[in-house]
Each structure stands twice: as C-alpha cells, then as structure tokens.
Amino acid sequence: MVPFFAVLIGLAAWQASSVLSVHPYYLTYYNEMAGGSERGYEIATDSNYDWGQDLKRLWLFTEENGIEEIHLDYFGWADPYYYFGDKRTWLSSCDAPRNGWIAVSASFYQGSRERAECDYRRWLPIEKRVAAIGNSIFVFHVEDVEDAR
C-alpha cells in the first residue's frame, strides 16, 4: 500500500507543479506529454488556446523594449488601438512580408498554414521568434524580408 500512495502523491505533486509552472497563462496550459504550454498552439488554436488574452502584455513588451511601430495580426476582441494607438498597423497572413516588429496571435499563425501562399512560416519561421507573449502572441523582428525567407 505504501508504494501506491507514494506514487499517487508523486503524480499529484508533478501535476500541481506542471500547472503552477504556466502561471499566469493558464489558458495555454498543456501537459508535458502533449508538448508543454509553449507548443500547445500546435495541437489546438482558437478559443482552446488563444482568446486574445495577451494584448496588454504585448503592449507592455513594446513599451519595455522601446518599440515605436508594430505590425499586428491579433486574434481577440479587445481594440488594439486602446493600447497601441497609431503605432500599430494591421497585418494579414496573405499580405506581403514586412520588415520591422511583427506580432501574430498563435491562432492566426497556426491557421495560416491552410493556404501555402498565406502561411506565415514562409517568412516568419517559429525558430526566429524573438518572444512569445503569454504563449499566445508570437513576436518577430525582421530586418530584411529577403533574409527571412
């Protein structure tokens, strides 16, 4: 009996540690067997992962890093103008690639693969990501669009 309870307590501690490690980004939680919270967007998108919950955190990131202009493809209901004013320009996956700071919601990044000509991966490979804001918004900095392809 003792080994059973020890295993049970160990598993419960692991689960608690796993959930607490994603604080405060609970919506994006995926356990380690599913790839972890950082890779949850590969399994599920839309309201299963991304509600646009990290727009304010993206704004804080731009303020902390002195970013004067950012191209944004945002999945959410909050009005980006409230935070960014005129320093935000809209972006769509089918737009021509751009230089500068780019922020793309995980849902739109993953969903863009449905049409090869509109896939963000064609010029924003995930390994070139500068930051993941709360796991749901990916930030890139492109200095030369031709080099990004």
Overview of the structural elements:
- With 149 residues, the chain is α/β, with parallel strands linked by helices.
- The chain has one domain.
- Helix content is 30%, strand content 15%.
- It has a five-stranded mixed sheet with strand order 2-1-3-5-4.
- The relative contact order is 0.15.
Note the topology.
Elements: H1 2-20, H2 55-64, E1 70-73, H3 80-84, E2 88-90, E3 100-105, H4 106-111, E4 131-133, E5 137-142, H5 145-148
* Helix percentage range: 25-40%
User: How many E-type strands?
Assistant: 5
- Hey, roughly how much beta strand do the residues contain? 5-15%
Q: Mean pLDDT, rounded to whole units? A: 86
Enumerate the strands of the largest sheet in spatial order, edge to edge or round the barrel: 2-1-3-5-4
Order of helices and strands: HHEHEEHEEH
Query: What is the rounded Rg?
Result: 18 Å
Counting helices, strands and paired strands, the structural category is alpha/beta
The count of helical stretches stands at 5
In quaternary terms, these chains amount to: single chain
Q: How far do the termini sit from each other?
A: 59 Å
Bulk shape: elongated
> What is the domain tally?
1
Which residue ranges are poorly predicted, with pLDDT under 50 across at least 5 consecutive positions?
none
The major sheet is characterized as: 5 strands, mixed
